[in-house]
Amino acid sequence: MIIKNVRVLDLFAGAGGFGLGFRRAGFNIVGAVEAWKYPAETYRRNFPGTRVWEIDIKKLDAADVEREIGRPDIIIGGPPCEAYTVANARREKEPLDRLYKDPRGRLTLHYIRFVGDLQPEVFVMENVLGIIEGDLKEALRYEFGRVGYEVKFNVLEASVYGVPSKRTRVFISPIRIRPKPERRRTVWDAIGDLPDPRDLHNIPNHQYKPLPRRVEKVVHKLRWGQAPVYFKGAKRVHQNYIRLHPYRVAPTVMGSSRFIHPFSDRLLTVRENARLMSFPDSHVFYGPIEQQYNQAGEAVPPQLAYKIAEEVKRKIGEL
Questions:
Q1: pLDDT, tens digit, for every residue of 36-82?
Q2: CA within 20 to 30 Å of 272's CA: 33, 116, 190, 296, which one?
Q3: Does 309 share its domain with 213?
Q4: CA gap 51, 258 in Å, rounded
Q5: Comparing C-alpha atoms, which of 316, 9, 32, 30 is closest to residue 174?
Q6: Are residues 226 and 140 in the same domain?
């Protein structure tokens, strides 16, 4: 099978991290669905020629997608994780309620609806580990089985595959995904060559953003790994505005993540956050700056997506 002729549909596409990895591996990203304005704009501008549906997936019929782009060979995507993540202190207490009761969690069922209606050769669905907590794993096994697929739960940690930040996620797919590990990259490997954002430069999304006053007052006291802001999640307390250790892998980048530079008393820029997620500088984020941070932090790291795509490429002919 010629890879460039393999059609990929990207659901809950965000700013395009998942699609970027598959495009780098040689696949043809023919369609994407993204409900939110700014990530949809980012996707559209970085994937010229790809049909982007800027619409709530609940209002989209898979048959209409197929009429425009044909039946996709592969479906990728990561439904919203808010219903499942341990960072959400207000998530439903009963695991099954996160899938069947929470409106955001129910979006996972719409991903499965598209898979069932379009019957791709392969799909890869990304989410946080919380999506397989308790009875959820068997519920997802049942829901995918109901539309014709036996699934595997592939747990991958991004820094093992060359991403300079930690990110453990599950990739649900009918195939086993076990990419070959790569050398770990540190924070300084990723951002050490970037100039101070207050200096003249032409690097996209590398704009200086002032610290909040409460952080600015104490930032000079922070050592590597320390943070002045804490918030409660479902299971533990999380940190924000961590001063990064330059010679280690960064903590997990999230949409709400803000980091302090290892050597300067300033906030990391959107581009520096994007580098920690393995985005190339050629991938430009659009919208207000807070939206840009969110887009970078909520993506599938392109480097990890590429390693997954290479596994799909290797196995797709065997199915």
A1: 999 999 999 999 999 999 999 999 999 999 999 999 999 999 999 99
A2: 33
A3: no
A4: 32
A5: 316
A6: no
- Domain span at residue 28 reads 3-184+298-316
Rounded CA Rg of the chain: 19
Q: What's the number of domains the chain is made of?
A: 2
Residue 47, SS3 per DSSP: coil
- Catalytic pick among 81, 99, 136, 190: 81
Give residue 255's pLDDT.
Answer: 86
Q: What is the pLDDT of residue 230?
A: 64
Distance (Å, whole) CA 307 – CA 302: 9
pTM (2 d.p.) = 0.94
**Least confident range of 14-23, 173-182, 223-232:** 223-232
Mark whether 81 is an active-site residue. Answer: yes
Give the containing element (helix H, strand E) for 96.
helix 95-100
Helices then strands, each counted (H, E), the chain: 11, 11
Look at phi and psi of residue 153 and say left if phi exceeds 0, alpha if psi is from -120 to 50, else beta. beta
* Residue with token string 């549909």: 9
- 180 CA to centre of own chain: 20
